[in-house]
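Suppose a colleague, Dr. K., hands you the sequence of a protein chain of 288 amino acids and asks what its three-dimensional shape might be. Before reaching for any lab equipment, you can write down a predicted structure in token form. Begin with the sequence itself:
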Amino acid sequence: MLNPAANKSQAPLFDYQVWSERLPALSRKYQTGQPFPHLHLESFLEPSLARELMKEFPQAGSHAWIQYKHQNENKMGLSMQELFPRRIRQVVGELNSPEFLAWLSELTGIEGLVSDETLEGGGLHQSARGGFLNVHADFTMHHHHKNWRRRINLILYLNEGWREEWGGAIELWDRDMKKCEARIVPLLNHALIFNTDEHSFHGFPDRLTCPEGISRKSLALYYYTPEVNGQRVGKSTNYRARPGDGRLEAALIWADKQAVNLYSRAKEKFGLSDDFASRVLGLLSRKK
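The predicted structure, expressed as tokens, is then:
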């Protein structure tokens, strides 16, 4: 809970008092979310704090940014917390804290959640004009903690003045990939929390049309539960075609998914980081 000795003139990093009062109703809404348990929260942080994070959000100019550029996505990510601006780093620490994990467990009904201090696959994400992320279900086990099963995604959007016609709304699809059942525009200080498993298909598959110099920005954190039996039955990211994508597009999505699966296996076996793949993809992208 909040530290009573904290400076009262400074907004809390997460207002447990406000959100805990609403927790029973929010938990019911989360559990009944369709097409899978999820919750869209507006004003997730105190507004002035959210604007601080937005203004601090670093430009993607350094080699530390991972290039996720292949058939199924075009975005960039930064997971090295030592490179995060001060307030973003503080908020990440809060959202990975025991207090927040307890709140999140009560919200989702999933006990024993653990945070990932390495932000594997998460952290800061941004996509410029032309960026996209095909509909997919996330990898199910942590690549470097072999008994950690991925359970929850939390995405905080940091885009003031984002226009819906630019695209970028995250889509939640049913397990049979027949239709999109929910869309959330990535507006400033809106957060999406959802269960992630083999059937929680989501993404923003249409290319962004935002003006040059503007990007779709977010902070992503993933939460896990340790598997007691220690048996690893993980699956890599499962990209899926939409009904209207066409045969060629569906074939390319499937082929790229197989390549991602091979990379994930190599990543686990040899302890590779995404930085290695990023450099290769960045080189190929420049040559292309």
